[in-house]
Amino acid sequence: MAQNGGSIRGIVRDSYKNLTLKKLYPSRYRAFCRKGVVPGRVVFLEIREKGLSDNFRLIRAALEKRNRRHPEGAGEGSRTDGEPEWTMSVVCIREGMESRGSVMKNCLQAIPQLAQAQFIFVNEVSYFLSCLPIRSETTVIQTWHACGAFKKFGYSAVGSGFGTTREDLEEYPVHGNFSYVTVSAPEVTWAYAQAFHMEDRVGRILPIGVSRTDMFFSSAYREKACGKVAWILRRMAPRLFLRENDTTVRSDPAALAGRGTSREIYARIGDIYSDRAADQSHAQDLSLVPGKKIILYAPTFRGTVAHAAAPAALDIAAMKQALGKDYLLLINHHPFIKEKERPVIPASCRDFAFDMTDQVSIEELLTAADLCITDYSSLVFEYSLFERPMIFFAFDMEQYLDERGFYYPVSDMMPGPVCRTTQEVIRVLQEKDADFDLARVRAFKYRFMSGCDGHATARLLKLMLEIVSGKKPG
User: Fold this and answer.
1) Are 91 and 45 in contact (CB under 8 A)?
2) Which of 59, 260, 277, 387 is surrounded by the most beta carbons within 10 Å?
3) All domains of the chain, ordered by start, with CATH?
């Protein structure tokens, strides 16, 4: 009976895909193509997210800045030659995240905007986008949501437990319709060519950098991000910030109520500072337990996107017992993992370990952390920009390799210790001369992130202007 039910579900799924992807969406797109493309119209197509994601926010802000710099009608010479007035919109189809009916409605509403767009930005793969007969006047730019190349995906993962089948990809080429793909460095172009089946168009894979990394090169952003993390931590655990000699409050927690504990204050955590100068006057009220450093633990998910699970192999209690005097542990789970599926922090460790997943962004956490522990997450590439220590907690490497696979050998690639157990992680952190070869981190950065230098968005805008003027690269 279960098999019959599964077969019926498969028939329904296949019928839905055939109806929408081969008939409904293409025909509606062609109908709206009767109208011309609107010069300067940019559509940010979010596949899974509910709103504008990191790369797109910076790109939109840059285009808005160009509009302000050269307002329409400001007189001759106010605009660069041939540059249009940029008009932007965001469409979120929620593919794979909501019911079929809801996704179909979102897609149908998105098509009129996509049909008249001069540029479409996307940072995921999509059945919907790939099925559209994109008109020649429209340029689709894939900015991808990850830097570097670590875990295999797309055509590279065909036949694995994670990937789909080659037959399905040939029937529904979800990696199609990309005019250009932007990546973090020349080193990884081959991996994206393989993943997107673009071996015959490698010249369209441009190592001009990843827009969202531009923020890491802004001192204002770094100060604001660190201040926000400090503020959130202080709200979650105000006792951590009490002066060591404040015996009154330590002996009477109720006294905290009169200390302005909900107020944003200037607070120091390692090298973390708030950028709110007005709060400096309150610095004498609260201060840090001396010597604390921030460890960020940010593992990727296990399983499939639809049934993502969080790894629970890191022994938080053991980490606190061994390292609690010197460190705080901030945890960030992958966004695919639902809140109810996240491992619970033991009650005895809630003054040491903090789940920051819904509190601040991963970019803010990367900025604030003194050290990062991860497994197979691509955030190792972003974190290398800070040239700070990394530990790789690869407790299930063989299993993960069988299910997903890597583009590079993990042990050879990683610019830091590879640990299999919590005790190994603890030993590394307890060693006075830990194996944190920052020269190796720098070499890793230049190899995989050479296009990320704070100017990736500027190079992307240059690409758009070249396309507008008819100088299509590649």
Assistant:
1) yes
2) 59
3) 12-210+454-468 (3.40.50.11820), 218-291 (no CATH), 292-450 (3.40.50.12580)
